């Protein structure tokens, strides 16, 4: 059998370093620093993202609720020397359900004050869009006043006329 040539080993005390050791050490330091940077970046993203989620933002506005005053109000008033009639359908809008429940509870008083309000109006005023808008604002204030007089929450935000018929 053929003999293999023997490799000469240099076993002197000063030359016993492995040749690939320096490269492995550099790669190990590089990988550990990349790992540390990744962990630090991930932790910062997690913590900063968590802090943003914890800060209170503005609460979303509540959905509006509606209460129709059924049946429509029918009032008579005088206009140009003649008896005139007004039939108006009214819807209240509030974002707090407690306000609508209070309005439902005191509906007879609200209807009474609105009938008195509409009965005092002049026919010529109600013919114009500006007059209708002014009466709508007065009606809103009247509804709020009825609720406040009874110690109820009065944050009715709007009144809408869903029908408005004059003869």
From TrEMBL:
GO terms for biological process: bacterial-type flagellum-dependent swarming motility; chemotaxis. Keywords: Cell inner membrane, Cell membrane, Cell projection, Chemotaxis, Cilium, Flagellar rotation, Flagellum, Membrane, Transmembrane, Transmembrane helix. It is found in: Cell inner membrane; Cell membrane. One of its GO terms (cellular component) is plasma membrane. Pfam families: FliL. It is a single-pass membrane protein. The chain crosses the membrane at residues 25-48. Controls the rotational direction of flagella during chemotaxis. Belongs to the FliL family. This is Flagellar protein FliL. It comes from Ectothiorhodospira mobilis.
